[in-house]
Amino acid sequence: MERPKNPTATTTTAQATTTTQATTTTQATTSGTLTITRPDDMHVHLRDDDALLAVAPHTARQFARAIVMPNLKPPITTAEQALAYRSRIVRALGPSSATFEPLMTLYLTDRTEPAEIKRAKATGRIYGAKLYPAGATTHSDAGVTSIARIGGVLETMAEEGLPLLIHGEATDPDVDVFDREAVFIERTLAPLIEERPNLKVVLEHITTAQAVDFVLAAPPNVAATITAHHLLYDRNALFRGGLRPHYYCLPVLKRHRHRQALLRAIATGSSKFFLGTDSAPHPQSQKEASCGCAGCYTAHAAIELYAEAFEAVSALDKLDAFASAHGANFYGLSRNQGTLTLRREAHTVPNSFPLGPSNQGSLIPLRAGETLGWRVDTTLTGHPSHARYRSA
Ligand code: DOR
Ligand code: ZN
């Protein structure tokens, strides 16, 4: 079968509305290079076993640190499991682990105890706890069935300064799949923020104008990650000339006007928005199936894809802060020391990557077999800072 071609042109007329953030290290030069502070991916799925070996090097090549999602099978529900998973990531990376810091997370369930939150925070290696509404997405069946069940946990998280990372989609089957984020914001997130003004909250992978407006209007303890694929594609990408499973993710791609709202959000330079790829590998056989898995794989070219989106709204000067400052500041981390350079150089994305024997096959990356206009220079300079909380 012919591999999907890029289904959506990425030129856009979205305009920046305001400019609030000056960047310090970005240099777009006439020679066609762009140098930014070494970035952080504040939302990634690294999986385990063979798949971990296959995908972690892509993330570690570009990013100094990454917030690692805990939705393994079984999920990472205890501090001890998170530390063991962290060791497996470090082992999988071998020598490249010297320049990459995995920032671990816990998976919340109805049975998570406040004491587990305290244990997690005390490790100094765990930077958030993820709320998957039960049934909302991949491996979320063990997730939280009602916020009311985790009141004590949320209270402890607020006290401990441990951010709550939210997959923000309503799970009521009567809610249209394209409305799930907006309904979650209205029914669950807005009351939660009201009730817990001291809890740090990241609304992950936002996809709608409602989410952009909500986050912009919310107090400083509320922020959001934005993926490259939600910036580059709208829901037409899923159906261009046939069903395109490699564009299927959750929250699902939305209509054009929502993508424009996301582009406007990044172009403002607001510190409430930061980079989180939600790169989510699945074997080709499980994507191209009668009931295919949700997830777009972007780690192979994450910064290149973001650069394309920022350039489309003439906001390349905002990429540095989005990718390396806003997230670090929100999590209370110091900024990375090194830099990463992108060059304007057309190159073709591989058709697939091997995913290891136990996955029986390949991983199809976003843009497989197509051209990218930016390329990351693999020479890294400086050393990433070690992840740590600032003492203030
Ligand atoms: O598209 C997605 N894939 N969305 C998620 O929330 C989970 C992720 C995965 O783990 O595959
Ligand atoms: Zn995710």
Oligomer: single chain
Low-confidence stretches: 1-27, 380-392
Mind describing the biggest β-sheet?
A: 8 strands, parallel
In this entry the ligands are:
(4S)-2,6-dioxohexahydropyrimidine-4-carboxylic acid, zinc ion
Report the radius of gyration as a whole number of Å: 19 Å
Decide which structural class fits the backbone: alpha/beta
Helix content: 25-40%
Count of DSSP strands: 14
The run of helices and strands is EEEHEHEHEHEHEHEHHEHHHHEEEE
Shape: globular
For the terminal residues, how far apart are their CA atoms?
56 Å
Across the major sheet, the strand order is: 3-4-5-6-7-8-9-10
Arithmetic mean of pLDDT: 90
Strand content: 15-25%
Query: How many separate helices?
Result: 12
Structure explained in plain terms:
The protein is an alpha/beta fold and 392 residues long. Helix content is 30%, strand content 17%. The chain contains twelve helices and 14 strands. It has helices spanning 49-62, 79-93, 114-123, 151-160, 180-195, 209-217, 228-232, 256-268, 284-287, 302-312, 319-324, 326-331, and strands at residues 27-28, 33-37, 40-44, 65-68, 101-107, 126-131, 164-166, 201-203, 222-226, 273-275, 339-348, 353-354, 362-363, 371-381. Strands 3-4-5-6-7-8-9-10 form an eight-stranded parallel beta sheet. Strands 1-2-11-14 form a four-stranded antiparallel beta sheet. It has a two-stranded antiparallel ribbon with strand order 12-13. Strand 8 (201-203), helix 6 and strand 9 (222-226) form a beta-alpha-beta unit. Helix 2 runs parallel beside helix 3. It starts with 26 loop residues before the first strand and ends in an 11-residue tail after the last strand. The structure holds (4S)-2,6-dioxohexahydropyrimidine-4-carboxylic acid and zinc ion.
